[in-house]
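pasting for the record
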Amino acid sequence: VYTNRFRVNRDSKQSTVIKPAESSVEEVGIRSELTIYTESRDLFFGGFEVAFLDFNNKFSNASNTLRTYSASEAEVWAWIRHQRTFGRLKADIGLHSDVGSLFGRSLSLQALQPRLTLSYHVADMWRIRGSYGAFNQNVITISNEDDVISLFEAWIYVPDDLKPEEAHHVVLGVDGNVIPELGVSLQAYHKAYTSLVLYNREKIFPTDPDFVNGTGKARGIEAMIRFLLNPLDLSLAYTLGWTTVSANGFSYAPRYDRRHTVNVLGTLRILENFDVALRWEYGSGYPFSKTVAYYDRLTFGGIGAEPVYGGIGQQYSILGPKNAARLPSYHRLDAGITYRFAVRSMNGSIGISLINLYDNKNILYYDRKTGQRIDMLRFFPSATLTVGF
């Protein structure tokens, strides 16, 4: 039995541009799992989960009118899996079911989601893997797509008149050791999103829907090299990826489409309980829509205070092509020292971390109306203490 509660609040402080907003989701549920071991070494897995969710959102629209959104939903999931080995081949086949969807929609992969994973040991130290899975999701987050970088996302349940989000994942990979100390992993993935919930870019009248169903796809390659020879542990990971979404015949890169990602981690064990680590991370820029011009919009609600003739109205920005530009790249170097200790029945660790060692300015937020830029955490030292009994 479990319970979760998430809350995000945007406080406008003294700002006349940023509007307050609040979003929360509360979940209460029960989960049960079963594993069966057989004499033939086959494994069978099964289980179910029932969850009750409450959503509450408060925000102000462009006219400073307070809007609220509340909803309560229930989700029921069940699954079965069978794992079996045929010599060098290992198979894992399963079926996940969104039981609630069986009562609300016709039988489809949105309600019955097959999963399959195959792995084959080519040699003692090499393995080829392939997997397929169908997944659907009813809980999504929304944010202002016109923000250069959004600091606020609200949770909602997919509206009843739209299909839940659905994805089909295909992953192929190979991993093994060139030598005992050097491991290599390479995989390629393709994800087809046959149903996404996207903003309705063609909304004109208040009666038009806020969201429409769209499609998307993501594909890429992930590679990792790890060298482990005591007292040194080095790893390098690189990801190359592309993501696009489409709705109403229009396609664009979503805000989280990142072309290149690099992670380098080095750990040196100076003593048995004393480690020194360095971590460098790089990510190419996320997409955004450039501001190409501004215009003054006159509103009829202000005619009495400011006549249309000679009035300047309220400034609005004109955006260029959807997410056609890219933000600056993100990169930083972190360092850490950790000492682990044990005293009788107590064990723990004490550490010092230096975040963003060379003090790089990574963008966190940019306001279109004021031109204000706020950067992420600059150089920041911290200390940690962890104790377990």
